[in-house]
Amino acid sequence: MSKILIIDDDAIICQFLTSLFRKYGYDSEYVMNAADAISILEAKHFDVVFCDLFLPDQSGKKVLKKIVRRSPDTQVIIISNSNDIKTAVEMIKSGAFTYITKTFTEDEIFAETKKALRYRKQLYKNHSHKFENNTNIHIPPLSSSNATHLTETSSKFVIGKSGKTAQILDQIRLVAPTCYSVVIYGESGTGKEAVALAIHSLSKRKEKPFIAVDCGILTHELARSELFGHEKGAFTGAAIQKKGFFEMADGGTIFLDEIANLSYEIQASLLRAIQERKIRRLGAQTEKNIDVRIIVATNIPLSDAVKNKHFREDLYHRINEFSIDLPPLREQKEDVMHFANHFLNQINEEGDKQIPGFDPNVVEIFNYYDWPGNFRELNNAIKRAAIFTDNQPISSDRLPKEILNRYAQLEQRKAQKETSGSSENNDLKNIAMEAEQNKIISVMVDVNYNKSQAAKILNIDRKTLYNKMKKYKLYF
Predict the structure, then answer these.
(1) Fewer CB within 10 Å of terminal CB in the chain, N or C?
(2) In what order do the strands lie in the sheet with 98-101?
């Protein structure tokens, strides 16, 4: 029988929750101050704790920290009269399972309790799972109640097991039920659209459309028509009436990726659409009401774009109600193989393959490689290797050559530093060569190994690029 503790100085709340949990078959009890809570938590173990944010002798935040430190598998649900989103985020970051206001209903309390218990059960399974050091490496994906729903809804969404990815899931779970606009920050390939879809999938709009728009490919001339639609004859070539993305997303969510690429004029139109909840098709005489939630993404800080006069300050403040920062894959090394196995499982299912995992050399390369293309690069690398593999672990000779080249260079640099000590750091020639080599690799990855495009970006001709690649033994 699951055990639940209620910590609140309101006797009516305590008695209501205690009776409710007992009705549903849970073993529950309550205390009305922090001191009694600490005493009972030292004597007994609880699966779930409901803790008031404001207690008479100590803050709920301090109690939360003590529970997390003493019993990390206990799921703490913070309850409060306040509906402050910043406080809610702070509690989640401090280790709370979720945060709810005291306007809760019986159904909401029961639902959140079941979620917390399922999440605790899954954590227990993950922590008790032991992995053996063999050639068939397989790490099953983390799955809480929310994570399960997300992975069922979007195969792109991957739940990691590190603190960083767990925090992202907490933020998604926190903001999804609200109507807030969300800004998602992250490098290319970090999964910004997948997070946006996850937010939509957990929102009240989940049955309505989710429309993703890549603003990076919208020219100034096309942007207004694509976003807001046009009437027949509105401009040369407008042979038919066309709905814009905002109309297509009506009732649901619109995701604007790389929003900073929109022109100042289009940003003004976007601001009006968001504020007034109305759009006008090109060539139309009347406006149309819309109900759309806005989620945007960018790989640059929008606050900097505002300072540089590249992004409207009023639009920035209108959409910046909540933000999520996605870390690059190089900062999640502890999760690399977890993500790799998730992608491999998808490939096995979609391609009717039976690849059991990765051999030790691949595991070493994946863990050491810096993944400039993030999750997209990892997924593509496994897809390409899987084409030439079946019924055996993926071997290093099946990996894309650019990854093998980069890995070899990283290993070589590491060996040079170990042998030459600090003297290399003062060798300007070596420093310049290393910088040039890294820049070539970075640009080649960005342009998907198109040598002509890379040469143009590097401001050299193709012959010079080939010579430099030969010099650095880069065989893209």
Answers:
(1) N
(2) 27-31, 3-7, 48-52, 75-80, 98-101
